[in-house]
Amino acid sequence: MLTKLKIWFYNQSTWIYNIQYMVISIFILIGVMLVDLNITDIGRHLPKIMFTSVDLAKLILAPLAGALLTITTFTFSTILAVMIKYSSSYSSKTIENFVKQKSTMKVLGIFIGGFVYNICALVLMENVDEGQKVIAGIIGVVYAIISIIYFTIFVQNVIVSMQTPNLISRIYEETKQVIKKEIAERKNAPFIKSTDRDKIVTIYSKSNGHLSTIDYKRLSKILKNIASLCVIDCKIGDYLNKKTRIAHIVLNDGVLVDNLQQSINEAFIVLDNKLYFYDYRHGITKLVEIALRAIAPVVNNPNTAIRSIRKISVLLSYLAQSDHVYTSKFKNDELEILYVENNLTEDLYFTFHQIVHYAKDDVSVMRALLEGLLYIEQSSTEKNRIFVDEYAKEIYTKSLPSHNNKMDVAYLADIYKKFIHRNS
User: Fold this and answer.
1) CB under 8 Å to 204, separation ≥6 — which residues?
2) Residues 6+ apart with CB under 8 A from 231
3) 209, β-bridge pairs
4) In the chain, N or C: fewer CB atoms in 10 Å?
5) Cα radius of gyration rounded to whole Å, the chain
6) Using CA atoms, how far apart are residues 290 and 274, in angstroms rounded to an integer?
7) pTM of the model
């Protein structure tokens, strides 16, 4: 339940923030009207500087309402411009890195809330006696000042977000947290006992889309007292169709279960889009797409590609520190749930094969790839080091035919020799 709530909040966060500030502005309006309409005597405890005449309050609130609406339109146009920039210059996947920033999500809500307050306060001013002192105008001014401060913060964040190194660093930090969390959960591969094949039940997906996450608490409750082992056969981020095998379960003796297929499918959360906070490959894919866009002939910016490759290499170096196949996600005396991890060979190919294909003619990018693999090898376990060395050899031999210049070949051979020396 908490997992689904987190995903729902992430998908609806823009609406939630806008509604939140509209509600806040309404509560502020209610408090102001309680004072201005003399419904409560709180007004006598407030400083006199907060009170203005009704005419001055109307004179303040009317232009503020128009100004806030204008700035809201301008802000929305700015957000659209940045989204277009991200999509055209980096990758459509990187748009969420800007849109999902709190400063971006909140800024529209603050201005919309301010407009709602000012326009409603103007209407309610008709019920206030002309000679009475009110606080609606001053509160509107304070709200406007806060809005401008936040707009300044938003503009600063836009400037920072438009710089490529900052975007790459942000994606790197987000992905690093996901990877470190996953590495911390990895344990020694458990010993799986041989079981009677007749007791195994295969579970197939009932939905089309990307596997976003698995609710292990819900899954353990479903399998309690009816199964001894559950092995997840699909991986986070995989695209599933209605015939994809997602798990197999070893049932206890004498257990006959109806509707098990449907119940277990409810624990597998399948969405159209991937979620970065569950799938580390989603973040790596963003960096790969930035690199691919940078080496495209139209852009021709290999330095950006090299920066992305270096960040990717650091991320993969964390994964190279573990060569376990299974992670035990739930375990007690009666039931164990196992998740099959991506191994380093799969991660290396998934990450670099497109870059190698499109950048094999660029000697500087290929050298950056080999340097990145060398860094990964230095952090690898003995088993993973073999995979890295083999992949480095494959990249080196694949790129050589594209370079006829002796200096280019020597430039690549210089870094590749380090792999040979480390293994000699």
Assistant:
1) 242, 243, 244, 245, 246, 261
2) 192, 247, 248, 249, 337, 338, 340
3) 240
4) C
5) 29
6) 17
7) 0.87
